[in-house]
Amino acid sequence: MNFQNSFKVNGQDIPYYHFLYENNLHVLLRRKNYWKARQATLENGMSLLEYLAKETNKQFNFNNVNFPVFERAVMMIIHYFSDNRTHDLDNFIYKPIVDTIRKTRVIPDDNYKNLSLFYVGQPDFKDWLEVYLVPFSYFTEFANQHFYELTDTFISKKQIRSIQEVEEELQKKKEIDYAKLMKGSDFF
C-alpha cells in the first residue's frame, strides 16, 4: 500500500494524509461571504473548488490504485491567520475542503459515521490552511505524538483557570484599554 505519511503506534506504521492550502482562502470561507464568493475566482483565475481540487491532487497521487481508505476518520483543519484579530472558527465554512478530500475516495463519505471534524485556529505570518486526515481509532495517538508540534503552545501557558481568574484578567484588560482611550482622547 502506498501512503503519503505515517506515524508509529506500537511499532506499526499508521498512515495519514496531510494537505496544505497556501492561498488566502479565509475571506471566501467566511460564513457571511461564502454563498456569494463560492463562484468568485481567486487571483490565479480559478474558482475555489478548482483550486482545492488541483492542490489536493497535486499533493498525493490518487490515480495509484493502492492507497489507504479510512472507513472512519478525523479531519483536523488548522486555520492560520496573519492578523491579530480574534476569529471564530464556527464562522467559517470548511465544506469545500471536506468535499474535495472526500472526492479523492480516501473516506467513503463525509457523514457522521465516516468523518469527525476537529478545528484549530493559529496565529501565523500568513493566512493558510493545513488539513490532516487520520484514522479515527488512532486519532488520540496522533494527537499525543503531533498536536503540540502543530500548534502554538505559548498561546495559553496555563491551560485551565478558574472563572474568577478569567474575570479578573478581563477586568484588568478593560481598565488598561479604558486608560489608553482616555490618554489619547481629546474630549476630556
From TrEMBL:
Descriptive protein name: Uncharacterized protein
SUPFAM superfamilies named among the record's database cross-references: Holliday junction resolvase RusA
Example GO BP: DNA recombination
Molecular function GO terms recorded: magnesium ion binding
InterPro entries listed in its UniProt record: RusA-like_sf (IPR036614)
